[in-house]
UniProtKB/TrEMBL annotation:
SUPFAM superfamilies: Rhodanese/Cell cycle control phosphatase. Keywords: Oxidoreductase, tRNA processing. Residues 122-215 form the Rhodanese domain. HAMAP family: TrhO (MF_00469). It comes from the Bacteria. It catalyses: uridine(34) in tRNA + AH2 + O2 = 5-hydroxyuridine(34) in tRNA + A + H2O. GO terms for biological process: tRNA modification. Catalyzes oxygen-dependent 5-hydroxyuridine (ho5U) modification at position 34 in tRNAs. This is tRNA uridine(34) hydroxylase. It comes from Romeriopsis navalis LEGE 11480. It is an enzyme of class 1 (oxidoreductase). The lineage of its organism: Bacteria, Bacillati, Cyanobacteriota, Cyanophyceae, Leptolyngbyales. Its EC number is 1.14.-.-. It holds the Pfam family UPF0176_N.
């Protein structure tokens, strides 16, 4: 596969985010790297894509700054560029949670290596929590995992309020790349939970490390790029994104009469207004025309 996709993050104090943004944006652009990178006073979080050499050059540049040494990086491959644009943004948080006391730099749960994860979540005394959003959980999750049914990570504290630290003495959490669990584990420790574990490197590292025959993962893993989902070996999956509502669409849903590529899917078919349907139809038409002109040279 021609393109390297690298997801990375690190919680580290940054007081010069705007200066970092300027130089990092320039370096990524020079290398032809695309993707999204977020900077905040609490650290850095991003996923980028490009040729292997270009992506490694960006990381070599980053790691010249000692604050970005030992970045948590998950690598995978794609047959095509996984992002259409390059975005480097300065935000309040590198993963929006809205709970300042959840500071992984001060306290964090116990990291569990992917090869040790199966034993942890197979323990009947462990409450296994998927910290991702509801639509992500619908694409795939671990056996025995509880779905908090959140629409955004900011809603996770509301779910935690329903739990009792005395009843749930052991908690194990996971997310796509590990960053949400860093904050979630810090928050749960702050709320009085004692034994809090989280999957180091997230689902992506697990799918990369654990053989499919030994896996307790069921389904595919949603990723926030043009691959839509990945499977074991971090290979591109079988889902598509609906151009109408952005919801992941399974191969079975693509067979529905409510699915029309570029316009609608079963999740939004009955919700689109006539104006939206007309706009999406015109957008699809323009995209097809652009492709035809490109093919003709």
């Amino acid at each position: 596969m021609a393109y390297l996709v690298a997801a990375f993050y690190k919680f580290v104090s940054l007081s010069d985010c705007h200066s970092i943004r300027s130089t990092l944006l320039e370096r990524c652009a020079d290398q032809g790297v695309k993707g999204t990178i977020l900077l905040a006073e609490e650290g850095i979080n991003g996923t980028i894509c490009g040729t292997e050499a270009s992506v490694r050059n960006v990381f070599a540049y980053l790691e010249q700054d000692s604050r970005f040494a030992r970045l948590d990086i998950k690598e995978s491959w794609s047959p095509q560029m996984s992002f259409a644009k390059l975005k480097v943004k300065v935000k309040k948080e590198i993963v929006t949670f809205g709970q300042p006391q959840a500071n992984p730099a001060k306290q964090v749960g116990t990291y569990v290596k992917p090869e040790d994860w199966n034993a942890v979540i197979a323990d009947p005394e462990v409450l296994v929590i998927d910290t991702r959003n509801d639509f992500e959980v619908g694409v795939g999750s671990f056996q025995r995992a509880v779905n908090p049914q959140t629409n955004s990570f900011r809603e996770f504290p509301e779910y935690v309020e329903q739990l009792d630290p005395e009843t749930h003495k052991k908690v194990a959490m996971f997310c796509t790349g590990g960053i949400r669990c860093e904050k979630a584990s810090a928050y749960m420790l702050d709320q009085g939970f004692d034994q809090v574990y989280h999957l180091e490197g997230g689902i992506l590292k697990y799918l990369e490390t654990v053989p499919a025959d030994d896996s307790l993962w069921e389904g595919e893993c949603y990723v926030f790029d043009q691959r839509v989902t990945v499977i074991h070996g971090v290979e591109p999956g079988s889902y598509d994104n609906c151009a109408g509502c952005g919801h992941p669409v399974s191969p079975a849903e693509m067979q529905s009469p409510q699915y029309e590529a570029g316009i609608s899917c079963p999740h939004c078919y009955d919700k689109l207004t006539d104006d939206q349907r007309e706009r999406f139809t015109e957008r699809k038409k323009q995209i097809l025309l652009k492709r035809e002109r490109a093919a003709q040279g």
